[in-house]
Write a structure and sequence with these properties.
Layout lengths: L4 E5 L5 H11 L6 H9 L5 E5 L2 E12 L5 E10 L8 H14 L4 E9 L3 H9 L3 E6 L11 E7 L5
Bound molecules: acetyl coenzyme *A (ACO).
Acetyl coenzyme *A binds next to strand 4, helix 3, strand 5 and helix 4.
């Protein structure tokens, strides 16, 4: 089954795929900056294909911190419902983890997740992410409005 799954980059030419997928996953309309950040992150944002059908995406933003250090912020990650629990989400997340470990200036990967999103919390915890904070009223138009911050430290492997 795993051989049928592959990842491709997000470019101007296929960014419409990411837009379409996001309408399925999230009750939020992402702005132009989100898509510009995703494309600017280069290899850190990916579309996932299952037998040549686009079924998932991960969109990251690179955030510069002090001293040339960077964080990777996962803006969105999703897999279409019929294709879940096949390891596609893990494949995308592992790609980002592996890529981060190959650079020596990335300190951590983090994201926000709605506090009631048990599937996503279980998913991230399985890959070693930890809840490091809770932010009340993070979201404006969804209930509950609260989110957790999940983070994983990156240790460079050269
Ligand atoms: N319940 C419990 N554990 C789960 C679940 C679930 N529904 N889904 C995944 N996991 C855990 C399991 O341990 C699983 O391993 P197993 O199948 O061997 O038991 C492991 O995570 C890996 O699962 P994958 O198959 O790699 O994950 P999948 O491809 O199904 O994608 C995802 C997981 C992305 C969370 C998917 O459920 C999804 O798209 N949900 C809707 C969108 C969403 O909520 N995205 C995250 C929001 S936060 C953000 O975007 C930054």
């Amino acid at each position: 089954m795993a051989e049928a799954i592959y990842l491709d980059g997000v470019r101007d030419k296929n960014v419409m795929q990411l837009k379409k997928l996001n309408t399925f996953f999230f009750p939020v309309r992402y702005n132009d900056k989100y898509y510009a950040d995703a494309i600017a992150s280069a290899d850190f944002s990916k579309l996932a294909y299952f037998s040549d059908v686009c079924v998932g995406s991960i969109a990251c933003r690179l955030e510069k911190k002090e001293g040339g250090v960077m964080s990777i912020y996962i803006m969105t990650l999703g897999v279409l419902a019929p294709y879940r629990r096949l390891g596609i989400g893990t494949k995308m997340l592992k790609h980002v983890l592996n890529l981060s470990e190959k650079q020596n200036n990335i300190s951590d990967i983090y994201l926000h997740v709605q506090t009631n999103n048990e599937d996503a919390i279980a998913f991230y915890k399985k890959s070693g992410f930890e809840i490091v904070d809770t932010i009340q009223n993070y979201y404006e138009n969804i209930s509950p409005p609260d989110c957790y911050v999940l983070r994983k430290e990156v240790h460079a492997k050269k």
